[in-house]
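Support reply, case 0932

Customer input (verbatim):
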Amino acid sequence: MEPKLNFFTKIYYSITSFDKYRYFLRQSVGRTVAYLLLLALALGTATLVPAAILYNNVIDEVTAGFDSTVPDFKLENGKLSVSGPMPIIIDGEGMPVVIDTTPGAEERILGKYDAVLLITADKIIQKNYVNKSSTDLKNLYGIVLTKDSVKQALPLMKPLGIFIFLFGGIFYIASKFVSALIISLAGMIINSSMKLSLSYRSIFKISVYSLTLPALLCTVLDLLPVLIPFKWALFYIIAAVYVYGAMSSIRKEIDKTDGGNMYGNAG
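Our regenerated output:
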């Protein structure tokens, strides 16, 4: 008989007890997919809504003070030129933005900040405490941007942001289903090594619920102002530990009852 478990009970069981995973095997595949969809929607909303609010606030601030705060500039053939004395520092509520197109700006500026977005003549560099990433402006070769052209485009940024965040939400949900499939491959290996003979449907169910804690943890980390290196590896390691723990618990139940295939055909 399929147990009736609400969404929050499933979250609690999937995090706190390997023994409770036997209940998930009695859930239908449809309910398992619905759980993963709801989990992804909830966590995706928690991640993307604050980002969308920040995006809108930044666009409003940039639009309001564009003429007075943004100097004349031109980006052409992957090179940025800006008029006025350097560096130009925009220090708002979030990460400070520093524009410096003079030679040696990267070495000179990055050492002064723990977290900063630096725009040089040929790069955009983001430094966030322990991590640094850069984008070469040569990737924009063939694009010409000026202060006037950006000013004309600003009113379009909010509608564009809606599509960006909608696409981001769809991608986030799809990524969780891909993760469940990847973890289920590890589950098949563990299933074989333990000689459990679980069906793939059962392995998939275990894999879906094993994602709960790492997904919650990674969402919290995404909301912190610190970039965690190899976060993806942490995600999969925790999920694999839960799959192993759940299957070990099932193995013990099978050994107790001597019913070697009691879960093998769980639908």
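We compared this against your earlier run and they match. Two observations from our side: DSSP finds ten helices and eight strands in the chain. The chain has a mean pLDDT of 87. Please reopen the case if you see a mismatch on your end.
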